[in-house]
Amino acid sequence: MDKDKLKILLKEQNDQIKDVKELVKRELLDEVKGKKSDLIVIVAGLRKVRKSTLMEEVRKENLHESYFVNFDDERLFDFTIEDFQMMQEILLELYGERNTYFFGNYSA
After folding, report:
1. Can you list the positions of beta strands (E) in 1-108?
2. Are 68 and 14 in contact (CB under 8 A)?
3. What band does 106 get if pLDDT is binned at 50, 70 and 90?
């Protein structure tokens, strides 16, 4: 994948999520926020139970401590496993060291 193309795409995605609209607070927000871990945390559930809304709330509270990548973006269709290192380098260059990644879609 072209590095300049990926850099523009990642910047656009991370700038876009700064404009998250006001959301109705999910009952599970406090429980999810309390699950700080050095491991991967996966939020799973049935379709249409508002998992994405819950994650948007968590992201909103951690915008300056996390990265966001939307792999549903059609511009990433040619992204390969070999591109992850380049993605990490670009995110570090753009936003500095952060420990949390959000992979998902943006539905605002």
Report:
1. 66-69, 100-103
2. yes
3. low
In one letter, which amino acid is 16? Q
> Domain spans of the chain?
3-103
Q: HSE (CB half, 13 Å, CA atoms) of 49?
A: 8
Q: How deeply is 107 buried, as exposed, middle or buried, from its count of CB atoms within 10 A (0-12, 13-18, 19+)?
A: exposed
Alpha carbon distances (Å) from 93 to 2, 10, 83, 89: 16, 11, 15, 6
pTM: 0.75
Give per-residue pLDDT as tens, 69-97: 999 899 999 999 999 999 999 999 999 99
